[in-house]
Design goal:
Blueprint (H helix, E strand, L loop, with lengths): L16 H15 L11 H8 L3 H13 L3 E4 L3 E4 L10 H9 L3 H25 L2 H18 L6 H18 L3 H23 L3 H17 L3 H23 L3
Antiparallel strand pairs: 1-2
């Protein structure tokens, strides 16, 4: 039986009860606890079990349906949809998958990054503005500074790392690439958190960040592409080794 939502949920008091129900059910669907094809309890049962109004359940199910996680069917109830139907670019779905450190999620993220970021680095080498170069330099310096304080400085390090990659995508001068970066921001954040935990990962990848910065600053598109590809491949190897460690 699904257990009731605790009065003080993991999101704290600042989130609405509707938001907590969406999060609570969404995490269980993404984790597989509520598996593909399984039936959610009916509206009245869920309301009683989670101690919320039936209206709150109804709105939460609508929100999950919009994310492609469930399908409400009149008189038949609500069933969980297969992953192929999920809106994998939805920010909350990305966050729920990222929190699980799902190996498939991380593998797919690295594959996508390899398709996008080396090309963005090529464009950035040609198009980056002076302000963007300054922001890229600042992000790298933040990474270098906070790398010395890991693991205590992990939040600051990850934020600097994220700023580096998002700045590079903006510096491509391609609005579609920049928009993709905004969509990917939650997944990038979780991926970079994972890489900061990988033994030796930061030490191995920090020089590659510096190489990307140097190539973009020098307007050397070929070196920028190579450095970014090497950066992502090195990160992926470190994270994969961590996930498969005994």
């Amino acid at each position: 039986m699904i257990q009731p939502v605790k009065p003080e949920g993991p999101l704290g008091r600042h989130r609405t009860m509707h938001g907590q129900v969406v999060e609570w059910l969404g995490r269980r669907i993404v984790s597989g606890e509520l598996g593909d094809g399984s039936q959610l309890p009916n509206e009245a049962e869920l309301a009683a079990q989670l101690k919320v109004s039936r209206g709150g359940i109804r709105e939460a199910v609508k929100a999950l349906a919009a994310k492609g996680l469930v399908e409400p069917r009149p008189r038949l109830g609500t069933r969980v949809l297969p992953r192929s139907e999920w809106n994998l670019m939805d920010s909350e779905v990305i966050i729920w998958r990222g929190h699980r450190a799902d190996p498939q999620f991380l593998t797919e993220l690295f594959e996508l990054r390899l398709m996008v970021e080396p090309g963005a680095a090529v464009l950035a080498a040609d198009r980056a503005t002076a302000d963007q170069l300054t922001a890229l330099e600042s992000a790298y310096q933040g990474m270098a500074e906070h790398a010395e304080g890991l693991p205590d400085s992990e939040p600051q390090f990850v934020e600097a790392d994220l700023a580096f990659h998002l700045t590079l995508l903006r510096a491509s001068g391609n609005q579609l690439v920049e928009h993709l970066g905004r969509l990917l921001e939650p997944s990038l954040h979780h991926g970079l958190e994972a890489s900061s935990h990988a033994p030796g990962g930061v030490a191995a990848t920090l020089p590659h960040h510096k190489a990307v910065l140097a190539a973009v600053r020098a307007h050397n598109a070929r070196n920028a592409e190579r450095a970014m590809r090497k950066l992502i491949e090195t990160t992926a190897s470190a994270v994969t080794a961590m996930l498969h460690a005994p």
